[in-house]
Amino acid sequence: MNTPPPRLDDLRRAIDEIDDGLLELLCRRFDVVAEVKQAKSAEAAATPLRPAREMQILKRLVAKAGKSLPTRLLVRLWRSIITEATLQQSPVIVHVSRKLAGTTAHRLLIDDYYSNFTVSECRDEAQALVQVNVAPTDIAIVETGSNWIEPFLEGKGGKALVIATLPVLRDATSPALLVFGVAPGDATDGDETLLISKGSLPRGFALQPVWQVKHGSNRLSAIAGFHSERESPLVGLMRSNPGLGLKVAGRYPSAIII
What is the 3-state secondary structure of 6-18? Predict the structure, then answer.
């Protein structure tokens, strides 16, 4: 005999039970977030964002889900959860230039990744960086090709560095947006270090750029790994090529390549 197809009412009850289970798990997750807030209370004032940890969560879940769930859906769901958990720890204001705020595609990108964060418009990129210097719990987001390098080199952002890039899902091209903040520098299994230089990196340099962008008289080069100006291989590059004026602009988790 043929097995009768499941009844719609039975399927709906099954979905309701799954939804109840998801709700219970979310409540448990946010209970743990409250404990995380207490654990962070002893740390110096800085943005509550933890880009390394956040990206580790996303990459692990994307790998675990495989083809069972669309990657874009998974990332959007968990970014909403992570963002709300962040706001329970501390408010975060996103400072952007007036030009960026008026660019619909970029503004939607920010709203999608940092949903419910307050966005504050500044006159330009320099003022956005200054705001993070004044309030280290905030972040500034600039267009990769905008006029942020000179203000950054002048120290307008204080201790703020690039801690993330957007979009988080992209191909091997350069990111559209750079996120500046004062966050713990934690290495992951997949990082990039962003360099500012007066010219191209030497062809013989061990780490060739993952992506690079010409920026007026400067050049932005992202190299694979979590590197410091005080350690090899960058310290050797700086000593042998002083004319490069090499400066680390940030270290951040690499994007999820699609």
Answer: CCHHHHHHHHHHH
The per-residue pLDDT for 41 is 64
**What average pLDDT does the segment 179-183 reach?**
95
Instruction: Classify each residue of 159-176 as buried b or exposed e, where b means 16 or more C-beta atoms within 10 Å of its C-beta.
Output: ebbbbbbbbbbbeeebbb
Tokens 């270090």 found at: 193
Nearest-angstrom CA–CA distance, 74 and 115: 15
The DSSP result for 120-177, as a single string, is EEESSHHHHHHHHHH-TTSEEEEETTSS-HHHHHTTTTTT-EEEEEE-SEE-SSPPSE
Q: What is the DSSP letter of 200?
A: P
Residue 46: the pLDDT is: 67
Determine the Cα–Cα distance for residues 56 and 112; give it in Å rounded to an integer.
19
- Using an 8 Å Cβ cutoff, are 141 and 100 in contact? yes
Rounded to an integer, the average pLDDT of 61-88 is 94
Q: Report yes or no: 210 and 171 within 8 Å, Cβ to Cβ.
A: no
Could you give the strand order of the β-sheet that contains 247-253, starting from the edge strand earlier in sequence? 118-122, 93-97, 139-143, 177-181, 161-166, 247-253, 191-197, 218-224, 211-215
Name the one residue in this structure whose structure tokens are 């500046």.
180
Segment (H or E) for 188:
none
Beta strand 139-143 pairing with 93-97: parallel
Q: Structure tokens of 95? A: 């400072």
